[in-house]
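User: Second chain of the day. Same drill as before.
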Amino acid sequence: MELLELARAAALAAGRLQREYFNRPIEVRHKGEIDLVTEVDLKSEALIVALLESSGLPILGEEMAKTEPTGRYWLVDPLDGTTNYAHRFPWFAPSIALMEDREPVLGVIYHVMLDELFWAEKGSGAYLNNQKIKVSEVKELKDAVLATGFPYGVHEQPDKVVGAFRNFLIKAQGVRRAGAAALDLAYVACGRFDGFWEPLLKPWDTAAGILLVKEAGGLVTNYRGEAFDPFQNHILASNGLIHQELVDIAQHYVP
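Assistant: Same format as last time:
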């Protein structure tokens, strides 16, 4: 099985498991004050890993070893949006990326409860359920709907997070905070959101989504407008047309 089909199969298999358990009582524990992990995260991880292991490539992810490999390897978030899942809020996704050093070259994100499979390969465009997608054509921030998220440590150091949120809120048409960065990026790629910013994410949160946005014609940088890779800790993604307006605000709130 080629690597794209393998990643798609793994995401779909994890999604089926997540739907199966969605309305059942599940075990939830805390990794931090507000950072959760459920038994479904772990079952999803085991399912994805069992499938991806057939590729012979190393696997790095949220609930597994954190040592960064080199060369080709998988970056996996088996269930992005764990807090949503634990509260039965239907906004979560498995996210799988194939990396070449620090660059994603293949990405798959599965919006489980809407049965929407987003995927991209470097140089081949971005797709939603086999239909090619592209970013929006909104040209000004005042007409844009943005997405964001808050880091798990926001309670300890809220000022920069809240400051950025306030400034985007008053200058954009709207801001949404749904709680799964992978889906936020997928929604930028297909034009449902016009831009996205978030600090202190992990590489498995963003790797697949970065590739989707780029292959859909968008732009991804850090808060300063510089080149971004998933191992940085502040991200801006947009349709490209409003990107400088985002940078003008975000650069004052680098975490």
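The mean pLDDT is 92.

User: Great, on to the next one.
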